[in-house]
Structures are given as structure tokens and as C-alpha cells.
Design a protein that fits this description.
Structural class of chain B: alpha/beta
Number of helices of chain B: 15
Radius of gyration of chain A: 23 Å
Oligomer: heterodimer
Structural class of chain A: mainly alpha
Strand order of the largest sheet of chain B: 1-3-2-4-6-5-10-11-9-7-8
Strand content of chain B: 5-15%
Radius of gyration of chain B: 21 Å
Largest sheet of chain A: 2 strands, antiparallel
Helix content of chain B: 25-40%
Shape of chain B: globular
Number of strands of chain A: 2
Strand order of the largest sheet of chain A: 1-2
Helix content of chain A: 25-40%
Largest sheet of chain B: 11 strands, mixed
Largest interface: A-B, 50 and 69 residues
Order of helices and strands of chain A: HHHEE
Order of helices and strands of chain B: HHEHEHEHEHEEHEHEHHHHEHHEEH
Number of helices of chain A: 3
């Protein structure tokens, strides 16, 4: 399935990645080539086949809700690119 | 074959078991052993680049601590043994980059469970292994920092994504390493570098602290000199963990006790689809000879068929990128990691952070996954792939009613020249065509050195049903007791 530059830009927006013109061009070609490889799946009849959720069949794993220790705020903030006091600093989310 | 020399300068040649015995007998100290590995890293790593970070000072401190434990009689088979950890696994206080600009300088405040369990036994951390960025690649050329070179031929790749770990063990830069395997990332580099690697059953080892790439496929496992060493390491890291709900609530067997070396009557299946046209003739010859050797040792060979094998590549490259696009959404430049510092609003800063923080292959997979999950394409790609995943699992289930294990090549190729495949993603993906199905089905599998093709190592892949690690280790152990391929070392 061919992917054009407009579709690449749409996908990049979904993935929140800025792309240069060169990247847009090469991704259009490469994603098209990769999607061609996926066509083989369409030849396989999967009517009524249950999709795999967990390979060993585990589901809804429960444990007791016991309070325990967690990271100190200083540890949580250790790798913060920008902080103000004990808070992560972010850019404005709402317009002024 | 190299004969181990126990003078201090050559301690790096010891296996885990040999070093452990000498430590327990007080013939060597962990400090001497650690110094020997650090010296070896000093000597050869400028040619190989197997390490992103070397933690020499901390390693010597940990070695002193291990020596105190041994002196006090409080030790295990791993106390004082120097190891390398793939840089995708969190190490408390030691930079964990995932070979990405996005996490350059990131210092975790906790250990991955597998790392923590090894450290509790007193292992010594030498440093962090180079890899393809976030585990995405088959050659370690996708490291944002530098490629790793194959110790058998430095013009060739070591495989990937755990290429730094396999190269380090092959070159004697660590007694063993922990790698991770999402589509072949332990087995394929182990094969290309001539060392022994084990990808455990999905859920056998906790994924806590393994920086997520594709959570339904990722597993942590050992890369070591032989199957006996892999057994010791697996026993240490396996088992349920309250921090990973997908870890299996199953007791951990005594893997070492299971190494009887007796494989008479073990039914070994040979899947015809794993010997397709186009495979390297030397690989075919070496793997075929290895399978015949298993028969000489008493295994019963049977030809079997896994007809869904041809769908595994497409299935994997839909599921893994889909999970990757969701997992890597966390890199927004706010909580940790690279953050765009220029002008712009929140969204622009996030988009620039991700543009500059991620390398080309990571972006390619995020984009592919975002596409496969997007409205209008979800059913045709993601849902379809998850159904095909069920068919691939059922194929293995059916075959494992007839046989106890499968024997096949790890890769159709040996290590290829650096740069040969970087411009063509599809050609790179085909390198892993025989390792991907195992992850899709969540099975355990090993790579065992079984010969050479034009001077480059070939790996025999052993695949078993869920939780059959003990059986696979024993088959590999029987083979390694009868052969010397795993003792060969590259000359550097």
C-alpha cells in the first residue's frame, strides 16, 4: 500500500513528531515498502480467530491493596529537564 | 581453542563457573578478577565499542564488598562475578541511555528487577552495553552514539539489538551479560558473536526496569560463555515479581541440577520452513551438522512443519511498532530525558523534542505503529496481526505435541559488513526471520555456537514450549559437552 507525503505528515502529527522535508520524503518511500510486506497477511483467513491478548493466558492479575513506600519527591524530580521547587515545570497548556 | 590461563592477567578468560570455583577456593579474589576484566576492556574496547559506560571505580568497590562476603562465607555461585548490563535495563545510580539521545544522561533511581536480583547475589557491574536505540535494530548500528564491532571481524556488525553485550562476552570484556530480546535481540547477536544466549519464556523474568519497547514481546535473558553459565544466571533472575503483573506465578526450578547432559530419547523437531532458499550455505552446513550431532547424542529427530512461519515477519512488524508507538509516547521532554529548549508552545516543544531525541529507526517504528493503530487501518493491520499471532501460537502448540524441542538456525546469515543494510529497512528486518516467531508465541529459545561460515560464528537455535528452559539448557549443555565451538575465542 503506497503512503504519500500527506499521509506521512498526518501520521507524524498523530505521533507528535516534527519531520524535516527530507524525512517526510524518505519515510513515505520506506513505509510504503514496509506496508507492501504486510500484504501477505491478507491471504490468511482469520475469520473467527480470537486475537492474542497474553501468550500464556494470564488476565486480570490482582494483588492485595497494601500501602508501601514509593519514590521521594526529590528522587522523582532527579531527571526533570525543568523544575520549579518541588514541581515539574511545563509550558503553558492553555492560551493566555 | 584457548586454554584458560589462571594468572591474573588472563582471568578474563574464565567462565562464570570456573571463576566461581576459584573465588570459593580463595585462589583468586573478586578484585583481581574485576581488575582483569577492566584491563581487558581498556585493551580492546577502543576497537569494539561494546560499552556505552564503564563504571570502573564502582566495580572495584563492589568487588571488595563481594570479597568480604566470600570471606564471611555468605556467597552464591554469582558473588564477585563481573557482568555487563545492556543499556536498556535500569541500573540505580548508573546512567541508562537506551543508546538514545533522548535518555543521554538519564540516571535511574531504581534497579530493574533482574539487575537487582543479580546485585543482591553480589555480582559486579562493569558497565552498560551498547545496543540499537531502544532495542530497535538487528546490528547495533542504530545506537545514537556509535556502532559496536564484531570481535571476529571488526569490519562487521555484532548483530543486535544486544550487540554490545554479545560482543563483550565474546571478547572477554565481561564474564556474562544481561540482554533483552523482543524479536531476536539476545539470540541473533549471540549467534553472530559465537556466544550462548537464552531468551526465556514471556513472563519467566520480570520486565520491571526494562525500558519498554514492545511490552507483549520483551524479555530479559543471559548471554554467557556456555549453557551451564546461562542456567546459573537464569535461576538468579527468574520468578514472579510484584512490580510486573505479566510475570508468571510459577516456581523457579533448579536449572543447574537439570544439566545431566543426557538427552537420549528427547524428540527434536526440525522445521522445514527454517531452512528456506537464500540462506548462507555455511550456516546450513553448520546447523545441519549440529542437528546430526544431537542425534548422535541420543536425540530422536523428526521433520516438522510450521506453515505460518512466512507470516511472522509481517505480524511482528505490525505488533511491535504498535506497542512501541504507545510505549514511547512517554518521551515528552517533561519528566526526564531530552527536552527541546527553544521557543514554541507545549505541542511544538514536544514535537521538536521527539524529532531531535529519537533516531531514524525509532521514528520509523513509532510512525508505523501510529499508522497501524489509526482510525480506518486498525482492523486491517493491528487486529489482523493479533489474530495471526494466535495462528502462529497454535502452530507451535501443535508441533510441541509431537516433539520436545525444535532445532533450527538462529539467522539465515552470519555477521554482515557494517553499513551493508542500513539504507534498506526491509532487508534489515529479514535478518530476524527465524527469531521473530518465538517472541510472537512467547516461547523460550537459545542460541548455541555450532561452527563457522567463512570464519564467522554460526548459531544453532533451540526452541521449546512455554517454561521448558531447563530442557533447552540441558540439550545445549549436552551439545557443548560433546563439542568445542563455545570455547573458541576471537583473536584481538
Amino acid at each position: 500500500m503506497p503512503i504519500d507525503r500527506e499521509q506521512v505528515k498526518h501520521i507524524a502529527a498523530l505521533a507528535r513528531i516534527s519531520l524535516s522535508e527530507g524525512e517526510t520524503e524518505s519515510f513515505a518511500q520506506q513505509l510504503s515498502d514496509i506496508l507492501d510486506q504486510f500484504e501477505v497477511l491478507q491471504s490468511l483467513d482469520t475469520t473467527g480467530v480470537t486475537p492474542t491478548a497474553h501468550v500464556a493466558g494470564l488476565d486480570n492479575v490482582m494483588r492485595d491493596d497494601e500501602p508501601g513506600s514509593s519514590l521521594e519527591s526529590e528522587e522523582s524530580l532527579l531527571n526533570a529537564p525543568r523544575r520549579r521547587g518541588d514541581l515539574f515545570q511545563v509550558r503553558a497548556v492553555l492560551d493566555e | 581453542m584457548t586454554v584458560p590461563d589462571h594468572t591474573v592477567n588472563h582471568l578474563w578468560q574464565l567462565t562464570v563457573a570456573e571463576a566461581s570455583r576459584l573465588l570459593a577456593a580463595k585462589e583468586i579474589s573478586s578484585v583481581e578478577l574485576t581488575r582483569s576484566f577492566l584491563q581487558r576492556i581498556e585493551e580492546v574496547d577502543d576497537r569494539l565499542s561494546a560499552y556505552i559506560t564503564v563504571t570502573a571505580d564502582a566495580a572495584l568497590q563492589q568487588a571488595q564488598e563481594a570479597d568480604r562476603r566470600i570471606a564471611a562465607g555468605e556467597y552464591t555461585a554469582l558473588t564477585g562475578i563481573p557482568m555487563q548490563i545492556k543499556d536498556l535495563l535500569c541500573t540505580e545510580g548508573t546512567t541508562t541511555t537506551c543508546a538514545s539521545r533522548m535518555l543521554e544522561g538519564y540516571v535511574p533511581v531504581y534497579n530493574a528487577t533482574a539487575v537487582g536480583r543479580l546485585r543482591e547475589q553480589g555480582t559486579v557491574l562493569l558497565g552498560k552495553g551498547n545496543m540499537d536505540e531502544f532495542g530497535m535494530g538487528s546490528s547495533t548500528e542504530n545506537s545514537a552514539f556509535f556502532p559496536t564491532r564484531n570481535p571476529w571481524d571488526t569490519e562487521r556488525v555484532p548483530g543486535g539489538s544486544s550487540g554490545g553485550s554479545a560482543a563483550a562476552v565474546a571478547a572477554g570484556e565481561a564474564a556474562f551479560a544481561l540482554g533483552t530480546d523482543t524479536g531476536g535481540s539476545i539470540r541473533q547477536p549471540a549467534s553472530f558473536c559465537g556466544v550462548t544466549g537464552l531468551k526465556p519464556t514471556y513472563g519467566r523474568v520480570s520486565r520491571y526496569g526494562l525500558v519498554a519497547y514492545a511490552s507483549s514481546l520483551d524479555q530479559v535473558g543471559p548471554i554467557a560463555r556456555d549453557a551451564a553459565d546461562c542456567a546459573v544466571i537464569l535461576e538468579a533472575i527468574a520468578g514472579q515479581d510484584r512490580f510486573d503483573a505479566t510475570s508468571l506465578p510459577v516456581p523457579v526450578p533448579d536449572y543447574r541440577a537439570g544439566l545431566t547432559g543426557d538427552i537420549s530419547g528427547v524428540r527434536v523437531g526440525v522445521p522445514s520452513e527454517y531452512f528456506a532458499d537464500g540462506m548462507d550455505t555455511g550456516v546450513r552446513a553448520a546447523v545441519t551438522a549440529a542437528i546430526e550431532r544431537l542425534a548422535d547424542l541420543g536425540a530422536e529427530l523428526r521433520e516438522v512443519s510450521l506453515p505460518t512461519t512466512e507470516y511472522a515477519l509481517a505480524c511482528y512488524y505490525i505488533i511491535a511498532p504498535s506497542e512501541c508507538s504507545a510505549n514511547l509516547a512517554r518521551y515528552d521532554g517533561v519528566k526526564y530525558g531530552y527536552s527541546h529548549q527553544g521557543d514554541g508552545d507545549m505541542w511544538e516543544a514536544m514535537e521538536r523534542t521527539r524529532q531531535h531525541g529519537f533516531g531514524p529507526e525509532v521514528k520509523r517504528r513509532i510512525m508505523l505503529g501510529a499508522f497501524a493503530l489509526s482510525s480506518g487501518y486498525y482492523d486491517a493491520y493491528y487486529h489482523k496481526a493479533q489474530q495471526v499471532r494466535t495462528l502462529i501460537r497454535e502452530d507451535f502448540d501443535r508441533v510441541f505435541q509431537e516433539v520436545d524441542a525444535l532445532a533450527a538456525p538462529v539467522s539465515p546469515l552470519v555477521a554482515f559488513p557494517i553499513g551493508e543494510r542500513t539504507d534498506d529497512p526491509v532487508r534489515m528486518y529479514l535478518v530476524d526471520v527465524y527469531t521473530l516467531p518465538v517472541n510472537i508465541a512467547g516461547l523460550p529459545a537459545m542460541s548455541v555456537p555450532c561452527g563457522f561460515s567463512d570464519g564467522l560464528p554460526v548459531g544453532l537455535q533451540l526452541i521449546g514450549p512455554h517454561l521448558s528452559e531447563g530442557r533447552l539448557l540441558n540439550i545445549a549443555h549436552a551439545y557443548q559437552q560433546a563439542t568445542d565451538w563455545h570455547n573458541d575465542r576471537p583473536s584481538l
